[in-house]
Design a protein that fits this description.
Blueprint: E1 4-6, H1 8-17, E2 29-31, E3 38-49, H2 52-63, E4 73-79, E5 82-95, E6 108-115, H3 117-126, E7 136-138, E8 141-147, E9 153-159
Parallel strand pairs: 3-5, 6-9
Antiparallel strand pairs: 1-2, 3-6, 4-5, 7-8, 8-9
Protein name: Glyoxalase/Bleomycin resistance protein/Dioxygenase family protein
InterPro entries: Anthracycline_SecMetBiosynth, Glyas_Bleomycin-R_OHBP_Dase, Glyas_Fos-R_dOase_dom, VOC_core
Pfam families: Glyoxalase
C-alpha cells in the first residue's frame, strides 16, 4: 500500500495560483517512502504502577484523567501546521511486571510517532539497533519495537493515513 502525503509548501503555492484548488500539481505528491525516515512526535507514554487500580484512581481523582475501555487516556490535539489533522497521545499505566515492556527492565516505555517506518527500520538495521519484533499493521497504523542503547524498549508507530 502506498500512502500519499501532500507537501504543505506545494499546496500553498498551488492554492495562490489556483484559488479553486480543483487539482494539485503532480510534483506536490510525496509517498511515504519518499519522506525522511524519522521521529515526528510522541505517540504515547506508558509506565508501571505498583498498584494499578489505585494509580488509575489517583490520576482520575486528582488530575481528572479518565480512562477508556483499554485502560488508557487519549490526549487529542491538532497539528499546528495543519489544523485539520488531529493527533493523539496515549497515556497508560500498566501493572508492575506486565510483559509488554519486556525485555526491558525499565519502568516505562515511550511510543514515538514516525514517518516512513520501513525506511527508519532500514537505517536502524544498518546501525545495529536491536529490533524486537516484526512490523504489525492495524487499521490505525503500523507498530514495531526496538531497544535503545540503555535497554529501554521503544515502540515506533506510523499512523495510518486518513482516507480522503
Amino acid at each position: 500500500m502506498i500512502l500519499i502525503f501532500l507537501s504543505a509548501g506545494c499546496v500553498d503555492s498551488h492554492a495562490k495560483k489556483n484559488p479553486d484548488k480543483s487539482a494539485l500539481p503532480v510534483d506536490s505528491v510525496t509517498t511515504t517512502a519518499e519522506k525522511e525516515p524519522k521521529v515526528i512526535g510522541i505517540g504515547g507514554i506508558f509506565f508501571y504502577a505498583d498498584s494499578l487500580a489505585a494509580t488509575q484512581e489517583w490520576y482520575r481523582k486528582n488530575l481528572g484523567i479518565e480512562l477508556n475501555d483499554w485502560g488508557s487516556a487519549s490526549f487529542d490535539s491538532r497539528k499546528i501546521d495543519d489544523p485539520e489533522e488531529e493527533q493523539s497521545l496515549q497515556w497508560k499505566p500498566f501493572a508492575k511486571g506486565d510483559a509488554y515492556f519486556a525485555p526491558s527492565q525499565k519502568d516505562f516505555m515511550i511510543n514515538y510517532q514516525v514517518q516512513n517506518l520501513e525506511g527508519l527500520l532500514e537505517r536502524l538495521r544498518k546501525n545495529g539497533v536491536r529490533i524486537l519484533d516484526s512490523v504489525e499493521t492495524y487499521d490505525y497504523g503500523k507498530f514495531v519495537h526496538i531497544l535503545d542503547a540503555e535497554g529501554n524498549k521503544i515502540e515506533l508507530w506510523e499512523p495510518a493515513e486518513e482516507p480522503e
